[in-house]
User: Fold this.
Amino acid sequence: MDKKIFLTCFSVFALSFIYSQNTQGTNNFWRDVRYGGSLGLNFFSGGFNASVSPSAIYPLSERFSAGASLNFNYAKFDDDELLAYGGSLISLYNPIPEIQLSAELEQLRINRTFDAFPNPIQDNYWSPALFLGIGYSSYNVTVGLRYNLLFDEDRSIYANALLPFIRVFF
Assistant:
């Protein structure tokens, strides 16, 4: 799975580099890339989940953008802790300027520690997520909810399938 993620990210960046070199001497591609990301914070009975995802997106049309993100997550469930890192591919669609629909394929490496007596138990594995989201956009900020179609209660770093988000791009 590591090779697939690396090859996907490498291909996206290689294609963007090639495309940027073929713009008749101007570097329009990099000028149009928007940088930003999202923050997530979810509180629930017995714990919380926090995430930071710096992102870069490219507008493919006036309404559609696509890009990639790096993802960092930390969650605490009672006495259990989870740390996750990975990447994602994201697409954004604005049917009208105020509404943003999103689809995001995420792959995270999960490092879990369970507070077990007498010795803690550690578990490390890969966890995929496929989010569909909707948000309200105003200027560069979008606030909304996203739903993980691949949610697995036993293996996910997220407490539930429905997560709020704040996304900002400049």
Notes: Helices lie at 2-21, 28-32.
